[in-house]
């Protein structure tokens, strides 16, 4: 897990809720691809179109609070976001992200040290380097790594059921 | 030469002694109704297209939000807000969420002998009280709003002479659908349809409103009935007096006359996608349905709900059918509560919504999906009217709709 | 060492005597709930995972509520998928128009004290009102439970909230939970369990408790628990056993935090736009003009809520140009409110009464607003854009406050 990548930063605030990530209005669209253009639309309607594959979101506390809609992490992933780095995550969103293989990193200080467009370097399970400063990051517990390593919960279950 | 009811109302509104079919007259309007289907467009024109925007007589205006209520989208909400703000600013009588416009008008405004424009095609319903109601677009509406007047081509009249009585289990809804089937969807284009005869005494106000309301589906400009005790009782109970009670003169000229014995009418359905494509309900038995709708300005009144409730009491809605029951107004809803009708529907598993146009308008409530079939007491069964372009709508009476909701397929009440 | 309520439930469920916060354990699930928005996704994931049967069809409940009645053409696809899934896997517990999922789960007897329950909705925390451990999950996780009957969880720490005394007139459990969320913050209980105790709580109806457990998610809580009592047993139609009575935090249990309130100190409050934890007393907001009021939702659409509103609205009228939308939480509540005259009173006052369901709360239909409009609502969320555009202002309040605001056409303190 000492993989390293660099990424461009999008900065969002505290309490980014699931209705902001994907409003209920669009939840009955057929596919995640149909929905993703509306990602973050109540807050920043232009954002979904600006995100490039490999970018990261750096947010404040309680990212993903609100509903259990799993479209929230799925859309973030479909937009090409490599990781969400936040001061803290809401519980259901956290589980849903792990189950869908969206990388979440908790760090309390990075948010105040970067601005939009900055480039950061992430070394998994070790640190983030931004604007010349280092921010240590923790590794995930083993049971979650198992799900991620299997490629998400669906793949873990397929393996259990002897399909893969 | 004698005049028809339509001619008499127009003559009075034009301030002349006599008019005849084919004349064009400038008329003074008594009332101008508009709903949330198009009022936002009227307001835009009022604000942007007029040199000196003003309202001739604000007391004549009635604005009603009934099509998409409660609102289903920011777009709808914005158009409602525009309407609400304008009504408040100008002091226009304003109703929101109190019922379907035509029902609100019948309960609160319409008087015999009046000439009323409504920015909705089913305005012809007001003929049940001997008023000349006709649907107009928002340009006509705007002109009338600003001037208090409009021009009108005097229509020819087709007269329906009704005798006898509808049989048990047959309703005014079956009657009017039968008539539309007989004369066709354009059978009364530009014309007035007048209903008279001995049979009228056997038709309640609810029946009459249902009949007049649907005449536009035969292309009619308006529908008219004579004002009898049944109509006067309805009017007096609501504290109103007639303006004029007209009857057609004996020597009036009619474009056509039909004699209909009410006893010959049978339960009917109109097949997708045309109101005039009617067949006896017994020939449509077994068509699987996904949704049933009892409501609308055509069939959402107390007696319609009563028919449905009597059938479904002690029974259940079919588990895979969504049965929407939507009273035509709050007055109807509250009366239905008092009679235990709403309770009966709720106990049976129906979906009882607030008074509004609902799925008849096909927009915000009970929309149907691809390949789905709806049986409805609404006004229209045009392609895609209730939702997806590949969905189907059958029109039928409250009894047939309720029976079908119970069975899960089209059936008639006697087959339950 | 003693245990908190959640530790007792998890311990009994897993057979592990000593569970402590932070432990990761696998629980056996007593009941699951799936609602209409997510059933197509659950169905897809379930089959993609390679399962061919449900672990126990009778333990699965499918409820249509967010999309009833359908407001968009594609909504009916969710019903069709749900019906097909239920038929294929032999599910009998399907409610197609009976009300909001969280109301039905306890009302229809699917959840009993001590149960472990998961649902595809964040407000699944509601069932803590009867002493059940219940929490919201995503559809992938749900698909996995449908196949296995189990789920891993981390044993949460517990925050104990004690409330003693008598609530002032026109102050309800909604004002309590809003105040608590304000005090804790929107993430103040993330990953943690809330435990409510004290005589104020003991004197509350189950319905009032439900309002509090329902909103626990708004401060991030995993669950929110009340000790089952006679009222719980009566509501759940069960015998109150010693095991149930024992679902109480032990005197020597470890709490991560303890908060105590005096009931007399609570006042009517509102959550201001656009965060649930932005709480202010109604008295500081008086005079704020409003366009609409919504009374309903799994938070506050129950009989006592409707009756309180009707009491305030009886013989009065909703302010001109203001809409009052009332959406009872379930068919049963609608029928009860019909029977005792509540709905008639509300209708006479000018309310628009809709069929039971999520209605406006989930923001798909039921009274969506437009730029510059303001709504006072009894539901659980006032997030940006939840009930229309991002320029709609949503204030959350109790049914009493909401009803008083509807009459005044502006925010007022209920009297």
Automatic annotation (TrEMBL), chain A:
<dbReference type="Pfam" id="PF00694">
    <property type="entry name" value="Aconitase_C"/>
</dbReference>
<dbReference type="GO" id="GO:0003861">
    <property type="term" value="F:3-isopropylmalate dehydratase activity"/>
</dbReference>
<feature type="domain" description="Aconitase A/isopropylmalate dehydratase small subunit swivel">
    <location>
        <begin position="55"/>
        <end position="106"/>
    </location>
</feature>
<keyword id="KW-0432">Leucine biosynthesis</keyword>
<dbReference type="InterPro" id="IPR000573">
    <property type="entry name" value="AconitaseA/IPMdHydase_ssu_swvl"/>
</dbReference>
<dbReference type="InterPro" id="IPR011827">
    <property type="entry name" value="LeuD_type2/HacB/DmdB"/>
</dbReference>
<comment type="subunit">
    <text>Heterodimer of LeuC and LeuD.</text>
</comment>
<comment type="pathway">
    <text>Amino-acid biosynthesis; L-leucine biosynthesis; L-leucine from 3-methyl-2-oxobutanoate: step 2/4.</text>
</comment>
<comment type="function">
    <text>Catalyzes the isomerization between 2-isopropylmalate and 3-isopropylmalate, via the formation of 2-isopropylmaleate.</text>
</comment>
<keyword id="KW-0100">Branched-chain amino acid biosynthesis</keyword>
<keyword id="KW-0028">Amino-acid biosynthesis</keyword>
<dbReference type="InterPro" id="IPR033940">
    <property type="entry name" value="IPMI_Swivel"/>
</dbReference>
<keyword id="KW-0456">Lyase</keyword>
<protein>
    <recommendedName>
        <fullName>3-isopropylmalate dehydratase small subunit</fullName>
        <ecNumber>4.2.1.33</ecNumber>
    </recommendedName>
</protein>
<dbReference type="InterPro" id="IPR015928">
    <property type="entry name" value="Aconitase/3IPM_dehydase_swvl"/>
</dbReference>
TrEMBL record, chain B:
<dbReference type="InterPro" id="IPR050067">
    <property type="entry name" value="IPM_dehydratase_rel_enz"/>
</dbReference>
<dbReference type="InterPro" id="IPR001030">
    <property type="entry name" value="Acoase/IPM_deHydtase_lsu_aba"/>
</dbReference>
<dbReference type="InterPro" id="IPR036008">
    <property type="entry name" value="Aconitase_4Fe-4S_dom"/>
</dbReference>
<keyword id="KW-0028">Amino-acid biosynthesis</keyword>
<feature type="domain" description="Aconitase/3-isopropylmalate dehydratase large subunit alpha/beta/alpha">
    <location>
        <begin position="20"/>
        <end position="283"/>
    </location>
</feature>
<comment type="function">
    <text>Catalyzes the isomerization between 2-isopropylmalate and 3-isopropylmalate, via the formation of 2-isopropylmaleate.</text>
</comment>
<keyword id="KW-0408">Iron</keyword>
<keyword id="KW-0432">Leucine biosynthesis</keyword>
<dbReference type="InterPro" id="IPR006251">
    <property type="entry name" value="Homoacnase/IPMdehydase_lsu"/>
</dbReference>
<comment type="pathway">
    <text>Amino-acid biosynthesis; L-leucine biosynthesis; L-leucine from 3-methyl-2-oxobutanoate: step 2/4.</text>
</comment>
<feature type="domain" description="Aconitase/3-isopropylmalate dehydratase large subunit alpha/beta/alpha">
    <location>
        <begin position="286"/>
        <end position="408"/>
    </location>
</feature>
<keyword id="KW-0004">4Fe-4S</keyword>
<keyword id="KW-0411">Iron-sulfur</keyword>
<dbReference type="GO" id="GO:0051539">
    <property type="term" value="F:4 iron, 4 sulfur cluster binding"/>
</dbReference>
<dbReference type="Pfam" id="PF00330">
    <property type="entry name" value="Aconitase"/>
</dbReference>
UniProtKB/TrEMBL annotation, chain C:
<feature type="domain" description="Aconitase/3-isopropylmalate dehydratase large subunit alpha/beta/alpha">
    <location>
        <begin position="8"/>
        <end position="281"/>
    </location>
</feature>
<feature type="binding site">
    <location>
        <position position="358"/>
    </location>
    <ligand>
        <name>[4Fe-4S] cluster</name>
    </ligand>
</feature>
<dbReference type="InterPro" id="IPR011826">
    <property type="entry name" value="HAcnase/IPMdehydase_lsu_prok"/>
</dbReference>
<dbReference type="GO" id="GO:0051539">
    <property type="term" value="F:4 iron, 4 sulfur cluster binding"/>
</dbReference>
<keyword id="KW-0004">4Fe-4S</keyword>
<feature type="binding site">
    <location>
        <position position="298"/>
    </location>
    <ligand>
        <name>[4Fe-4S] cluster</name>
    </ligand>
</feature>
<protein>
    <recommendedName>
        <fullName>3-isopropylmalate dehydratase large subunit</fullName>
        <ecNumber>4.2.1.33</ecNumber>
    </recommendedName>
</protein>
<comment type="similarity">
    <text>Belongs to the aconitase/IPM isomerase family. LeuC type 2 subfamily.</text>
</comment>
<comment type="pathway">
    <text>Amino-acid biosynthesis; L-leucine biosynthesis; L-leucine from 3-methyl-2-oxobutanoate: step 2/4.</text>
</comment>
<keyword id="KW-0456">Lyase</keyword>
<dbReference type="GO" id="GO:0046872">
    <property type="term" value="F:metal ion binding"/>
</dbReference>
<dbReference type="InterPro" id="IPR006251">
    <property type="entry name" value="Homoacnase/IPMdehydase_lsu"/>
</dbReference>
<dbReference type="GO" id="GO:0009098">
    <property type="term" value="P:L-leucine biosynthetic process"/>
</dbReference>
<comment type="function">
    <text>Catalyzes the isomerization between 2-isopropylmalate and 3-isopropylmalate, via the formation of 2-isopropylmaleate.</text>
</comment>
<dbReference type="GO" id="GO:0003861">
    <property type="term" value="F:3-isopropylmalate dehydratase activity"/>
</dbReference>
């Amino acid at each position: 897990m000492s993989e390293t990548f660099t990424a461009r930063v999008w900065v969002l605030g505290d309490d980014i809720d699931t209705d902001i990530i994907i409003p209920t209005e669009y939840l009955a669209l057929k596919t995640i691809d149909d929905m993703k253009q509306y990602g973050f639309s109540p807050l920043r309607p232009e954002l979904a179109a600006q995100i490039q594959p490999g970018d990261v979101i750096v947010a404040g506390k309680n990212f993903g609070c609100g509903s259990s809609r799993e479209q929230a992490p799925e859309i973030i992933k479909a937009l090409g976001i490599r990781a969400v780095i936040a001061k803290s995550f809401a519980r259901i969103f956290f589980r849903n992200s792990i189950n869908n293989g969206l990388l979440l990193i908790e760090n309390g200080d990075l948010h105040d040290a970067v601005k939009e467009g900055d480039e950061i370097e992430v070394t998994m399970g070790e640190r983030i380097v931004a604007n010349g400063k280092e921010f240590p990051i923790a590794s995930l517990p083993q049971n979650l790594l198992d799900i991620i390593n299997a490629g998400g919960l669906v793949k873990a279950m397929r393996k259990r059921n002897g399909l893969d | 030469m004698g005049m028809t009811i339509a001619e008499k109302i127009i003559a009075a509104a034009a301030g002349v002694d006599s008019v005849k079919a084919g004349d064009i007259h400038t008329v003074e309007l008594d009332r101008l109704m508009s709903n949330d289907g198009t009022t936002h467009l009227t307001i835009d024109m009022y604000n942007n297209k007029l040199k000196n925007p003003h309202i001739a007589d604000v007391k004549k205006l009635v604005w009603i939000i009934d099509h998409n209520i409660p609102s289903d989208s920011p777009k709808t909400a914005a158009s409602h807000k525009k309407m609400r703000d304008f009504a408040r600013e100008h002091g226009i009588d304003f109703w929101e969420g109190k019922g379907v416009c035509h029902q609100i008008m019948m309960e609160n405004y319409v008087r015999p002998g009046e000439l009323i424009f409504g920015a909705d095609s089913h305005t012809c319903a007001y003929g049940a009280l001997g008023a000349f109601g006709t649907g107009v677009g928002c340009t006509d509406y705007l002109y009338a709003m600003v001037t208090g007047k409009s021009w009108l081509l005097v229509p020819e009249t087709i007269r329906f002479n009704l005798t006898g009585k509808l049989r048990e289990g047959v309703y005014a809804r079956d009657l009017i659908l039968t008539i539309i089937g007989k004369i066709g969807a354009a059978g009364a284009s530009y014309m007035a349809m007048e209903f008279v005869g001995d049979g009228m005494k056997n038709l309640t106000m609810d029946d009459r409103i249902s009949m007049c309301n649907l005449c536009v589906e035969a292309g009619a400009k308006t529908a008219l009935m004579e004002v009898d005790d049944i109509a006067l009782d309805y009017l007096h109970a609501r504290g109103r007096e007639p303006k004029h009670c007209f009857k057609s003169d004996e020597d009036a000229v009619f474009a056509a006359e039909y004699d209909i014995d009410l006893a010959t009418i049978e339960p009917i359905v109109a097949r997708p996608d045309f109101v005039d494509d009617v067949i006896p309900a017994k020939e449509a038995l077994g068509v699987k349905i996904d949704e049933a709708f009892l409501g609308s300005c055509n069939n959402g009144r107390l007696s319609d709900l009563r028919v449905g409730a009597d059938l479904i009491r002690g029974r259940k809605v079919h588990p895979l059918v969504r049965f929407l029951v939507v009273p035509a107004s709050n007055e109807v809803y509250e009366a239905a509560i008092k009679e235990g009708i709403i309770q009966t529907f709720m106990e049976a598993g129906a979906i009882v919504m607030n008074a509004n146009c609902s799925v008849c308008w096909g927009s915000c409530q009970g929309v149907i999906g691809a390949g789905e079939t709806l049986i409805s007491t609404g006004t229209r069964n045009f392609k895609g009217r209730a939702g997806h372009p590949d969905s189907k709508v059958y029109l039928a009476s409250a009894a047939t709709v309720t029976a079908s909701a119970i069975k899960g397929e089209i059936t008639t009440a006697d087959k339950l | 060492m003693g245990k908190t309520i959640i530790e007792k439930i998890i311990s009994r469920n897993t057979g592990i005597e000593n569970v402590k916060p932070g432990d990761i354990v696998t629980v056996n699930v007593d009941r699951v709930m799936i609602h209409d928005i997510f059933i197509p996704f659950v169905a897809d994931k379930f089959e993609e995972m390679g399962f061919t049967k449900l672990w126990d069809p009778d333990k699965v409940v499918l409820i249509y509520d967010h999309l009833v009645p359908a407001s968009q053409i594609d909504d009916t696809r969710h019903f069709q998928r749900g019906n097909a899934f239920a038929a294929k896997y032999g599910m009998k517990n399907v409610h197609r128009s009976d009300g909001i999922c969280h109301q039905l789960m306890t009302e229809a007897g699917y959840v009993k004290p001590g149960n472990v329950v998961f649902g595809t909705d964040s407000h699944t925390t509601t069932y803590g009102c009867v002493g059940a451990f219940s929490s919201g999950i995503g559809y992938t996780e749900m698909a996995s439970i449908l196949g296995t009957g189990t789920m891993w969880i981390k044993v949460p720490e517990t925050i104990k909230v004690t409330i003693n005394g008598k609530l002032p007139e026109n102050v309800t459990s909604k004002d309590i939970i809003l105040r608590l969320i304000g005090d804790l913050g929107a993430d103040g209980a993330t990953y943690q369990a809330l435990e409510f105790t004290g005589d104020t709580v003991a004197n509350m109806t189950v319905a009032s408790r439900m309002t509090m457990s329902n909103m626990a998610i708004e401060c991030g809580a995993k669950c929110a628990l009340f000790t089952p009592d006679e009222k719980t047993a009566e509501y759940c139609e069960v015998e109150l056993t010693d095991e149930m009575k024992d679902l109480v935090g032990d005197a020597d249990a470890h709490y991560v935090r303890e908060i105590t309130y005096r009931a007399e100190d609570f006042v009517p409050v509102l959550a201001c736009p656009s965060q649930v934890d932005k709480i202010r007393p109604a008295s500081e907001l008086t005079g704020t003009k409003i366009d609409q009021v919504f009374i309903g939702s799994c938070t506050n659409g129950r009989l006592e809520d409707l009756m309180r509103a009707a009491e305030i609205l009886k013989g009065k009228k909703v302010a001109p140009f203001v809409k009052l939308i009332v959406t009872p939480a379930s068919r049963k509540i609608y029928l009860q409110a019909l029977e005792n005259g509540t709905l008639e009173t509300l209708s006479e006052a000018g309310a628009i009464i809709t069929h039971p369901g999520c209605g406006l709360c989930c923001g798909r239909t039921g009274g969506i607003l437009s730029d510059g409009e303001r709504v006072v609502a009894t539901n659980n969320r006032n997030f940006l854009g939840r009930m229309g555009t991002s320029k709609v202002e949503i204030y959350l309040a109790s049914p009493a406050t909401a009803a008083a605001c509807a009459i005044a056409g502006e925010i007022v303190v209920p009297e």
